[in-house]
Amino acid sequence: MSQQFWPFSKSIAYGGDYNPEQWPREVWDEDVKLMREAGVNFVSVGIFSWAMIEISENEYDFSWLDELLDLLHAHEIKVDLATPTASPPAWFFAAYPHARAINADGVPMGFGSRGMASHSSPEYHEAIVRYANKISRRYADHPAVVMWHVHNEYGVPVGEDFSEQSVQAWRRWLQEKYTDIAGVNEAWGTAFWGQRYTTFDHIPAPARTPSAANPAMQLDWARFTDDQIRACFIRERDAIRAHASQPITTNFMAHQAWNTDLWKWAKEVDIVSDDHYLWSPDPDAHIGLALAADLTRSVAGGKPWVLMEHSTSAVNWQGRNIAKRPGEMHRNALTHVARGADAVMFFQWRASRRGAEKFHSAMVPHAGTNSRIFQEVKSLGQNLQYYGAVQGSLVRNNVAILYDWESLWAQDLEWRPSDALGFREQMRTYYERLWRDGISVDFAHPSHDLSSYELVVAPASYLLRSEDAENLTRYVENGGTLVVACFAAAVDEYDAVHPDGFGAPLKTALGVSVEEYLPLRESETSTINYQASSGQHHALTATIWTEDLTLFGAKVVGQYEDGPAAESAPAITRNALGAGHGWYISANLSVTELAPVFSDIYADANLSAHRELDGVEILRRHHQDAEYVFVINHLNEVVEIPLVGRNMLTNEPADSVTVDAGGYAVVQTSQNGER
Ligand code: GAL
């Protein structure tokens, strides 16, 4: 984020969502005292306070918020002031029952939770703009307010809306996109199953259909839904901007919410912020965390970002909510910082006694301030002060992973060759391979300029526009190494198979195309004989997916030995094009099975893996004249890393750092400090 926007020069912001309206007034005094004790300098306020402020339509009571902001200011705690439009009051829905979103089964959302408003409701639009105007005019010059937080996690819990007003907006959206109905018929291939339309007025929302709904229609519906939601953000943002000059954000959920295209969203905010929660069933959830953090920094264009929410310990909304063990919170927080966050925030400051989230962890847990969690919160707050110099520094990577939300939306539709091959799983597998090899990555859209990257990996590019495929081809010609995983470039932006067949747009880059997809049965496997450049042979086990390939000049480096593809048929290929190489991996391989293949890929890209340090993250941020190296040890053993510089925690010179099992270190080195 640009420095002019960052209110915490040379320090990492620290704090969380603060919901004091749930507590008697005397608790607020204790809160601010404890915040100071914990090093908290930033809190998000008012996220769910609509009903407490706009008591009835157009009747406001700001008195408690006035008092709260003054109290926080008096204690030098800065405020990220929210618009509470994710949770309109009961009076609103009583007055405007049609402002409720309706689900795909035609059921209107009920009151008593949050997030039930229709993003297409004119009454909702009017109400959110009125509120945003009111609150921003009132607090534009309040000295505590340094940021605006619009809404909360757009897209969840309600994204799609099948209400009448949404359908009307959908038809307008289609008219704008396609101009005439013939354009829709062409784009959606409505000749199939007799779906031809004669007027926009006949187009429904893709609610429950007896069989598979038109996929191109569903893809456009996903785009429309995203646009509708984003238009609500823009309405509020512009209302605030008319009165206030502080940066405006809204909290994303990179790789955890699916219906918002964050490449588009990031262009609309002044500062990117993200919420992240560990996925409990995953014993390596910290790898998912790293992925989300890299994706957040990437959509932010590489600029530092705000970790708006994460948890001190367990959440309460997963099936089995696993508590964090000592040190884990600190490692999580530091991983976000190492990957570009300039703020470390939690949901929430004080655990709620009542309501749906009473079992959710917090900075001040139910067990009080003598608890392990509060002590760790304090020590994290203190340590972040030692890392203050890191603020504003950037992350540099020379590897990119392609990520396109449109491809996710399209790949996840029904009636694919195998529903076991998922976008998210493919993304995670390839990301994890690189993570375990100690190679840190950016994410990019396939249309981006990729020329600064030595290696570009496309784990899940099912939907690939022809012009983006040309971009990838040029990238290879100019000397890049491109790795493409199975089921790539199957369809265009209308979910239509590319004219010359599956994978055709990448034929030049990869020297191969796909004759037929050959998915496997649940327990079936297929063995690939991979001939490493070292001469060694590796038997790799594929699950879920194999393909029948046609060669157009690529060299075969791995053959199927069994399974539905013919014996000795090509499975993994390497193509020389111009100054670069295009690799194609036509089967679904696990993180482990991919290892020997990636060793050769790294050689093409002049990169080196650090498999001996699998489980230890070594990450770098840079200022013009300084480098900060973060070592985060996820192993159960002590590691010693040679690093010459200054240990930022102890402020001692260091030749190397010894990092305990589950520990961490941050070392400031000279600009080009070596591993
Ligand atoms: C977030 C949400 C917070 C809180 C949190 C619990 O998604 O923004 O309000 O519900 O989850 O983990």
* Radius of gyration based on Cα positions: 26 Å
SS strand fraction: 15-25%
Question: How many strands?
Answer: 28
Give the number of helices: 17
Unique bound compounds: beta-D-galactopyranose
CATH class of the domain at 399-606: Alpha Beta
Contiguous uncertain segments of 5+ residues: none
Query: Shape, please?
Result: globular
What number is the mean pLDDT? 97
Taking the sheet with the most strands, its summary is:
10 strands, mixed
- The second-level CATH architecture of the domain at 399-606 is 3-Layer(aba) Sandwich
The main sheet orders its strands as: 13-12-14-15-22-21-20-17-18-23
CATH topology of the domain at 399-606: Rossmann fold
- Name the CATH superfamily assignment of the domain at 399-606: Class I glutamine amidotransferase (GATase) domain
Helix percent band: 25-40%
What does this structure look like?
This protein has 675 residues and is of the alpha/beta class. Among the domains are: 399-606, Rossmann fold, CATH 3.40.50.880; 613-669, Golgi alpha-mannosidase II (Immunoglobulin-like). 29% of the residues lie in helices and 22% in strands. It has 17 helices and 28 strands. The protein has a ten-stranded mixed sheet with strand order 13-12-14-15-22-21-20-17-18-23, sandwiched between helices. Helix 15 (466-477) links the parallel strand 14 (455-458) and strand 15 (481-485). The longest helix has 27 residues, at 215-241. It is globular. The two termini are 28 Å apart. The relative contact order is 0.09. Bound molecules: beta-D-galactopyranose. Beta-D-galactopyranose (GAL) is lined by residues 152-153, 275, 277, 309, 315, 347, 357, 360.
